[in-house]
Amino acid sequence: MVVSDTTAITSLLKIGEAELLRTLFEEVVIPQAVQAELLSYHAVLPTWLVVQTVSADETLWNLLTPLDPGEAEAIALAKLNGADILIIDEKRGRALAEQLGLRCIGLAGVLLLAKQHRLIDSLEEMLSRLENRANFYLAAPVKRKLLVIAGETFDV
Questions:
Q1: What does each of the 156 residues of the chain score in pLDDT, given as a tens digit?
Q2: Are 39 and 72 in contact (CB under 8 A)?
Q3: Is the pTM value of this prediction over 0.85?
Q4: Is residue 131 part of a domain?
Q5: Residue 16 covered by a domain
Q6: 68 is a domain residue
Q7: Cα 78-44-2 angle, rounded to 5 deg
Protein backbone atom coordinates (compact mmCIF):
# COMPACT_ATOMS: atom_id res chain seq x y z
CA MET A 1 0.00 0.00 0.00
CA VAL A 2 1.32 3.40 -1.03
CA VAL A 3 -0.17 6.51 0.56
CA SER A 4 0.59 10.02 -0.67
CA ASP A 5 0.39 13.57 0.53
CA THR A 6 -0.46 16.31 -1.97
CA THR A 7 2.92 17.62 -3.15
CA ALA A 8 4.15 14.74 -5.33
CA ILE A 9 0.80 14.26 -7.04
CA THR A 10 0.08 17.93 -7.73
CA SER A 11 3.63 18.56 -8.93
CA LEU A 12 3.50 15.63 -11.36
CA LEU A 13 0.01 16.66 -12.54
CA LYS A 14 1.35 20.15 -13.31
CA ILE A 15 3.98 18.73 -15.67
CA GLY A 16 1.78 15.98 -17.13
CA GLU A 17 3.73 13.11 -15.54
CA ALA A 18 1.36 11.78 -12.86
CA GLU A 19 1.24 8.41 -14.67
CA LEU A 20 4.70 7.72 -13.26
CA LEU A 21 3.06 7.07 -9.91
CA ARG A 22 0.60 4.58 -11.41
CA THR A 23 3.36 2.84 -13.35
CA LEU A 24 5.57 2.53 -10.26
CA PHE A 25 2.91 1.70 -7.67
CA GLU A 26 -0.27 0.68 -9.61
CA GLU A 27 -2.51 2.63 -7.26
CA VAL A 28 -1.90 5.35 -4.73
CA VAL A 29 -4.15 5.82 -1.71
CA ILE A 30 -4.95 9.35 -0.57
CA PRO A 31 -7.07 10.61 2.30
CA GLN A 32 -10.03 12.92 1.75
CA ALA A 33 -8.06 16.02 2.81
CA VAL A 34 -5.48 15.35 0.07
CA GLN A 35 -8.29 14.82 -2.45
CA ALA A 36 -9.77 18.19 -1.45
CA GLU A 37 -6.38 19.93 -1.76
CA LEU A 38 -5.80 18.38 -5.20
CA LEU A 39 -9.29 19.31 -6.43
CA SER A 40 -8.71 22.92 -5.45
CA TYR A 41 -6.00 23.07 -8.16
CA HIS A 42 -6.95 20.33 -10.63
CA ALA A 43 -10.37 19.80 -12.19
CA VAL A 44 -9.90 16.07 -12.71
CA LEU A 45 -7.86 13.53 -10.77
CA PRO A 46 -6.43 10.27 -12.09
CA THR A 47 -8.77 7.30 -11.65
CA TRP A 48 -6.03 5.19 -10.08
CA LEU A 49 -5.99 7.46 -7.01
CA VAL A 50 -7.94 5.66 -4.30
CA VAL A 51 -9.58 7.92 -1.73
CA GLN A 52 -9.98 6.53 1.77
CA THR A 53 -11.50 8.01 4.90
CA VAL A 54 -9.21 8.23 7.90
CA SER A 55 -10.78 6.82 11.03
CA ALA A 56 -10.39 8.97 14.10
CA ASP A 57 -7.60 7.71 16.34
CA GLU A 58 -7.34 10.31 19.08
CA THR A 59 -3.74 9.52 20.07
CA LEU A 60 -2.52 9.75 16.50
CA TRP A 61 -4.52 12.90 15.74
CA ASN A 62 -3.04 14.61 18.80
CA LEU A 63 0.45 13.91 17.48
CA LEU A 64 -0.44 15.35 14.11
CA THR A 65 -2.13 18.60 15.12
CA PRO A 66 0.83 20.83 14.11
CA LEU A 67 0.53 19.65 10.49
CA ASP A 68 -1.83 20.73 7.73
CA PRO A 69 -4.88 18.47 7.20
CA GLY A 70 -3.49 16.73 4.10
CA GLU A 71 -0.22 15.82 5.77
CA ALA A 72 -1.93 14.78 8.99
CA GLU A 73 -4.49 12.56 7.25
CA ALA A 74 -1.87 11.02 4.94
CA ILE A 75 0.35 10.11 7.90
CA ALA A 76 -2.60 8.81 9.91
CA LEU A 77 -3.88 6.76 6.96
CA ALA A 78 -0.43 5.29 6.33
CA LYS A 79 0.10 4.45 10.02
CA LEU A 80 -3.35 3.04 10.70
CA ASN A 81 -3.29 0.86 7.55
CA GLY A 82 0.34 -0.26 7.75
CA ALA A 83 1.31 1.32 4.43
CA ASP A 84 4.51 0.14 2.78
CA ILE A 85 5.43 3.65 1.65
CA LEU A 86 4.31 7.18 2.45
CA ILE A 87 5.08 9.76 -0.24
CA ILE A 88 5.67 13.03 1.61
CA ASP A 89 8.05 15.93 1.07
CA GLU A 90 7.34 18.38 3.86
CA LYS A 91 10.19 18.27 6.35
CA ARG A 92 8.19 18.39 9.59
CA GLY A 93 5.58 15.89 8.41
CA ARG A 94 8.22 13.51 7.10
CA ALA A 95 10.18 13.65 10.36
CA LEU A 96 7.04 12.89 12.36
CA ALA A 97 6.06 10.06 10.00
CA GLU A 98 9.51 8.51 10.35
CA GLN A 99 9.26 8.79 14.16
CA LEU A 100 6.05 6.77 13.84
CA GLY A 101 7.97 4.08 11.97
CA LEU A 102 6.72 4.87 8.47
CA ARG A 103 8.92 4.35 5.42
CA CYS A 104 8.91 7.69 3.58
CA ILE A 105 9.94 8.76 0.12
CA GLY A 106 9.71 12.21 -1.42
CA LEU A 107 9.03 13.28 -4.98
CA ALA A 108 12.77 13.26 -5.72
CA GLY A 109 12.93 9.65 -4.55
CA VAL A 110 9.96 8.78 -6.75
CA LEU A 111 11.75 10.31 -9.73
CA LEU A 112 14.93 8.40 -8.90
CA LEU A 113 12.90 5.17 -8.86
CA ALA A 114 11.39 6.15 -12.21
CA LYS A 115 14.89 6.68 -13.62
CA GLN A 116 16.11 3.35 -12.21
CA HIS A 117 13.09 1.60 -13.78
CA ARG A 118 13.83 3.41 -17.09
CA LEU A 119 10.51 5.22 -17.07
CA ILE A 120 12.25 8.56 -17.61
CA ASP A 121 15.36 9.30 -19.64
CA SER A 122 16.69 12.22 -17.66
CA LEU A 123 16.26 12.96 -13.99
CA GLU A 124 17.89 16.36 -14.51
CA GLU A 125 15.38 17.28 -17.21
CA MET A 126 12.47 16.16 -15.02
CA LEU A 127 13.75 18.21 -12.06
CA SER A 128 14.12 21.22 -14.34
CA ARG A 129 10.50 20.86 -15.53
CA LEU A 130 9.33 20.62 -11.92
CA GLU A 131 11.24 23.78 -11.02
CA ASN A 132 9.91 25.73 -14.01
CA ARG A 133 6.29 24.57 -14.02
CA ALA A 134 5.51 23.32 -10.52
CA ASN A 135 7.77 25.47 -8.31
CA PHE A 136 9.32 22.31 -6.87
CA TYR A 137 12.90 22.99 -5.83
CA LEU A 138 15.64 20.91 -4.25
CA ALA A 139 18.69 22.22 -2.48
CA ALA A 140 21.71 22.14 -4.81
CA PRO A 141 23.61 19.50 -2.77
CA VAL A 142 20.54 17.22 -2.73
CA LYS A 143 20.01 17.65 -6.45
CA ARG A 144 23.69 16.96 -7.15
CA LYS A 145 23.61 13.79 -5.02
CA LEU A 146 20.49 12.52 -6.84
CA LEU A 147 22.09 13.12 -10.22
CA VAL A 148 25.20 11.20 -9.12
CA ILE A 149 23.05 8.28 -7.91
CA ALA A 150 21.13 8.39 -11.21
CA GLY A 151 24.40 8.25 -13.14
CA GLU A 152 23.77 11.57 -14.84
CA THR A 153 26.78 13.39 -13.38
CA PHE A 154 29.93 12.59 -11.49
CA ASP A 155 30.73 13.83 -8.00
CA VAL A 156 33.58 16.32 -8.03
A1: 999 999 999 999 999 999 999 999 999 999 999 999 999 999 999 999 999 998 776 656 666 778 888 999 999 899 989 999 999 999 999 999 999 999 999 999 999 999 999 999 999 999 999 999 999 999 999 999 999 999 998 765
A2: no
A3: yes
A4: no
A5: yes
A6: yes
A7: 20
